[in-house]
Automatic annotation (TrEMBL):
<dbReference type="InterPro" id="IPR035919">
    <property type="entry name" value="EAL_sf"/>
</dbReference>
<dbReference type="InterPro" id="IPR035965">
    <property type="entry name" value="PAS-like_dom_sf"/>
</dbReference>
<feature type="domain" description="GGDEF">
    <location>
        <begin position="315"/>
        <end position="448"/>
    </location>
</feature>
<protein>
    <submittedName>
        <fullName>Diguanylate cyclase (GGDEF)-like protein/PAS domain S-box-containing protein</fullName>
    </submittedName>
</protein>
<dbReference type="InterPro" id="IPR029787">
    <property type="entry name" value="Nucleotide_cyclase"/>
</dbReference>
<dbReference type="InterPro" id="IPR029016">
    <property type="entry name" value="GAF-like_dom_sf"/>
</dbReference>
<dbReference type="InterPro" id="IPR013767">
    <property type="entry name" value="PAS_fold"/>
</dbReference>
<dbReference type="InterPro" id="IPR000014">
    <property type="entry name" value="PAS"/>
</dbReference>
<feature type="domain" description="PAS">
    <location>
        <begin position="160"/>
        <end position="213"/>
    </location>
</feature>
<dbReference type="Pfam" id="PF00563">
    <property type="entry name" value="EAL"/>
</dbReference>
<dbReference type="InterPro" id="IPR003018">
    <property type="entry name" value="GAF"/>
</dbReference>
<dbReference type="InterPro" id="IPR001633">
    <property type="entry name" value="EAL_dom"/>
</dbReference>
<dbReference type="InterPro" id="IPR052155">
    <property type="entry name" value="Biofilm_reg_signaling"/>
</dbReference>
<dbReference type="Pfam" id="PF00990">
    <property type="entry name" value="GGDEF"/>
</dbReference>
<dbReference type="Pfam" id="PF00989">
    <property type="entry name" value="PAS"/>
</dbReference>
<dbReference type="Pfam" id="PF01590">
    <property type="entry name" value="GAF"/>
</dbReference>
<dbReference type="InterPro" id="IPR043128">
    <property type="entry name" value="Rev_trsase/Diguanyl_cyclase"/>
</dbReference>
Length: 721
C-alpha cells in the first residue's frame, strides 16, 4: 500500500481539526471494560503522529508515531499481542515501558477505511503483563475495530451529506429533483429565485410548471419512455432551453440532467443556470460582428452576408460601392474625433437617401456600400446613385466646421455582371475605380471592358505570385549625393521585375497590382534583406557609402512585425541601424497611423525614416510633426520646372525651410541638370537624386562607377555637366 494513498484516505475522514463524535470514546470505554484493562484507544495513524479519536484511560490526544506500539499492527493482517512489553526487544527501550505507570501489555488490530485502506488501529494496554489473551479475545478486539470502522464511515457520509445540503441551499445554481412521473421532490432556494415559485408550492407539483406550453408534450413523452425502461438520452449532457417563470415570461436556461434508478422507477435531477445575461452578451457580440461600431451600419462581413442571402433567395441583387473622395483631408486637418463625428453624420445622411428594402454598410474607413435587393434594375440603381450624390452636395457642420466631401460610386448587378458575392463586389469596385479615375463625384456602371481589364489583372496577379519562386525580382540602385560637395552618400534600392516574356518591367507596370497582392509582404521583406546584403558587400569591396534606402509596402506596415524584420536583416549582415533608411509614402502614413509604432521604435534605434514624394498627397504639417521622420523627399514634379516656374521654386523653398525647422534632412528627386542642382543648393537643399548623378543601375555598375580606393572624387567629376 502506497503511504501517500493511505494518508489521503485517512484525511478524507476529516478527523483532524474537527469535533469527533463521543461514540468513539464510548467504544474505547467499552473495550476497556470488555478486556478489563485500564487503557483502550481508537487511533488514526498520520505521517508523524498517532491521533486518538477515541480514548479511555489517557488524557493525551496524540502520540509521536515513533513511540507508538501500533506501527507493526497497522500493516499486519492479524491481531498483534505483546504479553510483556518489558520482555520484548522491540519495545523494552520505549519510555512508556518504564517508570511508575509503566505499560506491560499490548494488543491491537488494524483499523480499515474505505476500500480496505489501513488508516489506524484499535488497541488495549495494561500495566500488568497478560499471558492468557485467548483467540476469542483476539476475535472480540477485531470485532470492536470493525464497529469503529463502520462508525467512521457513517460519520463521513453524514459530513458529506451535510456539506452537500449546505451547498445546494447556498449555491446560486437552481437544483431540482423529481420522480419518474415528473413530480418535484426537491427545490432549493436558488430555484425559488429563478422560477418565482416558493418551495412549498413547487414540491409535489409537476415539472411542466416551468416549461413553456409548446415543450410540454415532448417532455411528457420522454418521461413516459423512461418510466417504461427506456435509456435517458440527455444524462450528463448540458442543454440550453427556454424556461417559464411564474409571472409568465420566458427566459433561457442552461440545464445539466442526471438520472438514477429508484425502488419505484426512475428519478432525475437537474442543476440550472439563468443564461439571459450570456445570451444578451452573445447577441451583442453577434451584432458587433456584423455592424460597424462607429456608425451602427453593417460592416463588411454583415454587408457581404446580406448580399449572399439576397443572391441565395432569387439570384438578383445590385451593389453600389461608394468611396469618399477627400475624407483623408478632413481627418488629417481636424483630427480623428471630428472625422468620426463626420462619418456618423454622413451615415445618417446616406441612410436618408435610400429607402425600402435597401441596406447600407460601412465596409472600410471611408468606404460605404448599398445593397438593392431583387430585380430593381440598373435604372433604379442609377437613380439611387444620383440621390446619394445630391444629398452629399451640401456641407456637414461638425464642431462649427463646414465640412464637405465628394463621393464616387460604382454599380454592378447580378446576374448581369456576376453571379456570386465576391465577383459582384469586385465588379462594383472596378466601376468605382473607373469613376474615380474619371474625376470622381459621379457614378459609373460596370461594363465588359472593365471585365477584360479584370481578367488581365488576374492573370498578372498569378504571374506575380510565381515571380518570387522563380527568382524574377531584381534590385537596381540610384545614387544619392550630398549637394554641397557632390559626395556619394547613399543609394535607393528600386524594385524591378525580370518577366520571362515581357523582359525587365518598370514599377508602373506591376507595382499597383503588387501592392494589393498577398506577395507584397514577402517581396518587401526580400527587398530589405537584399539591400542590406548589398550594402555590406559594397563596403567589403571598398566602396565608401553611408546608407541604402528601401521603399516599404503598406502590407509590411499592416503586418506589425517590420521592426523584427529590419533588426534581423541588419544583424544578419553586420550593419548598424543608421546604415538603413526606410521610405514611406504619404498614403501609407495617413492610412496606417495606428500601425506605425514599430517604425517609431526603429527610428528611436537609429534607422532613418523618409517621407517619399512629399507634397503630392494630403499630408499636413501635423502629419510631419506626428510621424518619426528623418528626411523629406521633394517629388521630382516640383524639381522639373524649378528654374523656370516661380511657384514651384516657392514650394520647394517652403518644403526645405519646413524640413529644416523640424530637424529633418531634405533630398530632392529628379535632378537632371546643373541649373536644377545649383538652384536647389542655393535654396539649402541637403541632398539630391536623379539622372544627373546616374540612372538606376545594377549593384556591380554602382561599384564600378563609384569605388575610389585612393581618392574621393565628387560624382560631378564622373558626370561632368
Amino acid at each position: 500500500m502506497d503511504e501517500t494513498n493511505r494518508l489521503d484516505c485517512a484525511a478524507s475522514y476529516r478527523l483532524e481539526g474537527t469535533p469527533v463524535a463521543p461514540l468513539f470514546d464510548h467504544l474505547a470505554a467499552l473495550g476497556a471494560e470488555l478486556f478489563d484493562v485500564p487503557v483502550c484507544l481508537v487511533s488514526i495513524t498520520g505521517r508523524e503522529d498517532q491521533l486518538f479519536i477515541g480514548r479511555f484511560g489517557i488524557d493525551s490526544e496524540t502520540m509521536p508515531r515513533a513511540l507508538s506500539f501500533c506501527n507493526e499492527t497497522l500493516w499486519s493482517d492479524l491481531v498483534q499481542v505483546v504479553p510483556d512489553l518489558s520482555m520484548d526487544d522491540r519495545y523494552r527501550a520505549n519510555p512508556f515501558v518504564h517508570g511508575p505507570s509503566a505499560l506491560r501489555f499490548y494488543a491491537g488490530t488494524a483499523l480499515f477505511g474505505q476500500d480496505g485502506v489501513r488508516i489506524g488501529t484499535v488497541c488495549i494496554l495494561d500495566t500488568q503483563a497478560h499471558h492468557d489473551f485467548s483467540e476469542n479475545d483476539r476475535a472480540l478486539l477485531a470485532r470492536l475495530a470493525t464497529i469503529a470502522a463502520s462508525a467512521l464511515d457513517i460519520r463521513r457520509n453524514q459530513l458529506s451529506g451535510s456539506a452537500a445540503q449546505r451547498f445546494v441551499e447556498t449555491t446560486t445554481m437552481a437544483v431540482i429533483t423529481a420522480d419518474h412521473e415528473g413530480h418535484i421532490s426537491f427545490w432549493n432556494p436558488a430555484a425559488e429565485a429563478l422560477f418565482g415559485h416558493p418551495a412549498r408550492d413547487a414540491i409535489g407539483g409537476n415539472l411542466t410548471m416551468i416549461m413553456p406550453e409548446r415543450f410540454r408534450e415532448a417532455h411528457l413523452h420522454g418521461v413516459s419512455r423512461l418510466a417504461q425502461g427506456g435509456s435517458p438520452t440527455l444524462a450528463g449532457k448540458t442543454v440550453e432551453v427556454q424556461a417559464l417563470h411564474r409571472d409568465g415570461h420566458e427566459f433561457p436556461i442552461e440545464m445539466t440532467l442526471s438520472f438514477w434508478k429508484t425502488a419505484t422507477g426512475v428519478g432525475f435531477g437537474a442543476h440550472i443556470l439563468d443564461i439571459s445575461v450570456r445570451r444578451a452578451r452573445e447577441a451583442r457580440l453577434q451584432h458587433l460582428a456584423h455592424h460597424d461600431e462607429l456608425t451602427g451600419l453593417l460592416n463588411r462581413r454583415g454587408f457581404m452576408d446580406g448580399v449572399e442571402r439576397a443572391l441565395a433567395e432569387n439570384g438578383r441583387a445590385t451593389v453600389l460601392a461608394l468611396d469618399l473622395d477627400t475624407f483623408k483631408e478632413v481627418n488629417d486637418a481636424f483630427g480623428h474625433a471630428v472625422g468620426d463625428a463626420f462619418l456618423q453624420a454622413l451615415s445618417l445622411r446616406l441612410s436618408s437617401a435610400i429607402a425600402g428594402d435597401a441596406a447600407l454598410g460601412r465596409i472600410g474607413g471611408d468606404e460605404f456600400a448599398v445593397l438593392l435587393r431583387g430585380d430593381l434594375g440598373l435604372v433604379h440603381a442609377a437613380d439611387v446613385a444620383r440621390t446619394i450624390l445630391h444629398v452629399l452636395r451640401d456641407p456637414i457642420t461638425i464642431a462649427q466646421h463646414q465640412l464637405q466631401v465628394g463621393v464616387s460610386i460604382g454599380i454592378a448587378a447580378a446576374p448581369i455582371h456576376a453571379t456570386d458575392v465576391d465577383e459582384l463586389m469586385i465588379r462594383a469596385d472596378l466601376a468605382l475605380f473607373r469613376s474615380k479615375r474619371d474625376g470622381g463625384r459621379a457614378f459609373c456602371i460596370f461594363d465588359n471592358g472593365m471585365g477584360a481589364d479584370l481578367a488581365a489583372n488576374r492573370a498578372f496577379k498569378i504571374e506575380i505570385g510565381r515571380a518570387a519562386k522563380n527568382g524574377e525580382w531584381e534590385l537596381l540602385y540610384q545614387p544619392q549625393v550630398a549637394l554641397p560637395d557632390g559626395r556619394l552618400i547613399g543609394t535607393e534600392a528600386l524594385l524591378r521585375w525580370r518577366h520571362p516574356e515581357r523582359g525587365l518591367l518598370l514599377p508602373g507596370a506591376f507595382l499597383p497590382l503588387l501592392e494589393m497582392h498577398a506577395a507584397a509582404f514577402e517581396v518587401g521583406t526580400w527587398v530589405i534583406d537584399r539591400a542590406c546584403a548589398q550594402l555590406a558587400d559594397w563596403r567589403a569591396r571598398g566602396l565608401c557609402i553611408e546608407r541604402v534606402s528601401v521603399n516599404l509596402f503598406a502590407a509590411q506596415i499592416r503586418a506589425g512585425n517590420i521592426e523584427t524584420i529590419v533588426r534581423a536583416a541588419l544583424a544578419r549582415h553586420g550593419l548598424e541601424p543608421s546604415d538603413l533608411e526606410l521610405e514611406i509614402t504619404e498614403t501609407i502614413a495617413l492610412r496606417h497611423d495606428g500601425d506605425l509604432e514599430p517604425l517609431r521604435a526603429l527610428h528611436a534605434a537609429g534607422v532613418a525614416i523618409a517621407f517619399d514624394d512629399f507634397g503630392t498627397g494630403f499630408a499636413s504639417l501635423t502629419t510631419l510633426k506626428r510621424f518619426p521622420l528623418s528626411r523629406l523627399k521633394i517629388d521630382k514634379s516640383f524639381v522639373t520646372d524649378l528654374v523656370t516656374d516661380d511657384h514651384n521654386a516657392a514650394i520647394v523653398e517652403g518644403v526645405i525651410a519646413i524640413g529644416h525647422r523640424l530637424g529633418l534632412r531634405v533630398i530632392a528627386e529628379g535632378i537632371e541638370n546643373g541649373p536644377q542642382e545649383r538652384a536647389l543648393a542655393a535654396l539649402g537643399c541637403d541632398e539630391g537624386q536623379g539622372y544627373l548623378y546616374g540612372r538606376p543601375m545594377t549593384a556591380m555598375d554602382i561599384l564600378n562607377r563609384f569605388i575610389t580606393r585612393h581618392e574621393r572624387r565628387p560624382i560631378r567629376a564622373l558626370f561632368p555637366i
